Prior knowledge:
2 copies of one chain form a homodimer.
Chain A: E1 9-13, H1 20-34, E2 38-42, H2 43-49, H3 57-76, E3 80-84, H4 90-99, E4 103-109, H5 112-118, H6 123-128, E5 150-153, H7 159-170
Amino acid sequence: MMKPRTPFVLWFTGLSGSGKSTLADKIAAYLSEKGFDFERLDGDTLRGVFPSTGFNRTERDEHIQRVGFMAGLLEKHGVIVLASFISPYRQARDFVRKRCRNFIEVYVKASLAACEARDVKGLYKKARAGQIREFTGIDDPYEEPNHPELVIDTDDESVEQSARRIIDAIQKFL
Amino acid sequence: MMKPRTPFVLWFTGLSGSGKSTLADKIAAYLSEKGFDFERLDGDTLRGVFPSTGFNRTERDEHIQRVGFMAGLLEKHGVIVLASFISPYRQARDFVRKRCRNFIEVYVKASLAACEARDVKGLYKKARAGQIREFTGIDDPYEEPNHPELVIDTDDESVEQSARRIIDAIQKFL
Lengths: 174, 174
């Protein structure tokens, strides 16, 4: 496994269904092909390991901060981190930024309408029906990044175009 | 930084004041001198980063499991992990064991009387006075490991003797 010249944390944030995981997986495939040592951290996977994690602000923040701390440690030891989490709160994302050396915040921007129209996991439908509470974009806020390193507009751009832009942006670290 | 032949997680468990951190620091110094890439995770440090972590069973378990997950990831990427946590519950420690490939549970065994007599941080005094609740050994249980890879009896053994035994035990991985 190859170490990059400069390890970094690629942090995908955005609404549920915006395309975070899809994009992170694309970058993972690229890094894998190039032989780089990386770790893939994903919201759904982590919540699967820690099912008691709730969705109120305190619990979300604690969760994201814990993941961010972990990302920072992996980066410190030369591992590239690809993290995809809704991470709706600015404060928690900024905590993560401070724990990392090279933090690349990728705002995966898609309109709520587009995400809801896709509704791959059927979660928006449940949220609208009141079967899920504290759902980001519906009854819980999403705080847009103020100064993200990258903005990916998945309403207008194909996955391939978006992935290409991210791959271009990380070349200087590899 | 050198990678070991086989990465591993050295997990120190035991009462507050049993000598976990002191021992882990000794091993850290040894690995550092030998040029190995390792990470030191410590209960006090982690609780400093995540001050809202409480002391009831649910919160302790969640905390230890999160740390254990992180230890497992670091190990996976070739980093030796030295973790010192009271980690009083068997179930949480077993969760960590399952997340790691080479988990070495070091039971730092010291009598409550000895730990209380040392009381380096003055915590036992506070716990006896009822100023701290849910204190392991006083009003919260410590579940001894059933099959620890190593037992270190710090009542009878010097720090140097204990460290020597641990260093001998990890040679096969280095």
